[in-house]
Amino acid sequence: MQITFLGTSSGVPTRSRNVSSIALRLPQRAELWLFDCGEGTQHQFLRSDLKVSQLSRIFITHLHGDHIFGLMGLLASCGLAGNVKRIDLYGPPGLEEYLQAGVRYSQTHFSYPVKVHKIHEGVIYEDDEYIVSCGPLKHRVTAFGYRVTEKDRPGHFDVEKAKAVGIPSGPLYGQLKQGKTVKLSDGRQFKGTDFCGPDQIGRKFVYCTDTVFCDGAVELAKDADLLVHEATFAHQDAQMAFDRLHSTSTMAAQVAAIAGAKQLIMTHFSPRYAPGNAIVLDDLLKEAQAIFPNTKMAYDFLTYEVPRPV
């Protein structure tokens, strides 16, 4: 489970930061999930090591332009490349109408299936390995945060140990891996737990933007191994954050601390804190770390491997 930031600015791009988009890479299944798709996201793909051909799911937090204006361009390019099998889109009400309007007026024709899922609070996707859920945030328009939970996996199966006691390879190994008890033809019985290491605890990734501090973000971020949370404003500009329903660096840190998250990475920074101004991004980082020490600051193309819980 690997995160790559494709855009970390708020509202408008800057010379060094594009607008919002984060890629979640699932290397064991050669799959890529995208969270938000601001203008220029497809160009950010070209500047990264990510393969757009692996893109299968896109999760949109809300319908403000800096989170969706890159969607039509990316989907159209995927169609022209001809190497995407299917893309599922998840987002709030209005996403499908937005996409249909773009298709109609640009006369774009996708060469692969695109399905839009209108989301509501709760589980919105589940397979054998992952659960994706969403919850409401507090912004000027309907907005959702996302939580990706990796399911626990059985521990490592010790093949050499099984061979040493004379268990023949084949279906019996599969049963032992599942923790079952098997009986050999000579009457001996073996428990699967004796040949497997401890279960691998699944990781939890949470993405919260755009929002002012709210209980919904805290609930989503509970015990997260990685929380990515917007920090548009410095603490000094808290009134502006409340007026515009965005978060300060201290709000993001408070969410992480209350939720018991392991790591916080802040993103979605206002361009007003560019170098040379009275307040710069390093000041936002110090503000957050004073509340939640395990805080990092995102930048475009930062890649972070979500650690497995121990």
Terminus-to-terminus distance: 16 Å
* Structural class estimated from helices and strands: alpha/beta
Q: Enumerate the spans where pLDDT stays under 50 for 5 or more consecutive residues.
A: none
Please count the beta strands (DSSP E, at least 2 residues each).
16
Largest sheet: 7 strands, mixed
Structure, described:
InterPro entries: Metallo-B-lactamas, RibonucZ/Hydroxyglut_hydro, RNase_Z/BN. This is Ribonuclease Z. Pfam families: Anti-Pycsar_Apyc1, Lactamase_B_2. The chain is of the alpha/beta class. The protein contains 10 helices and 16 strands. The strands form 3 sheets. The protein has a 7-stranded mixed β-sheet with strand order 6-5-4-3-2-1-16. Strands 7-8-9-12-13-14-15 form a 7-stranded mixed β-sheet. A two-stranded antiparallel ribbon has the order 10-11. A hairpin with a 5-residue loop joins strand 10 (181-183) and strand 11 (189-191).
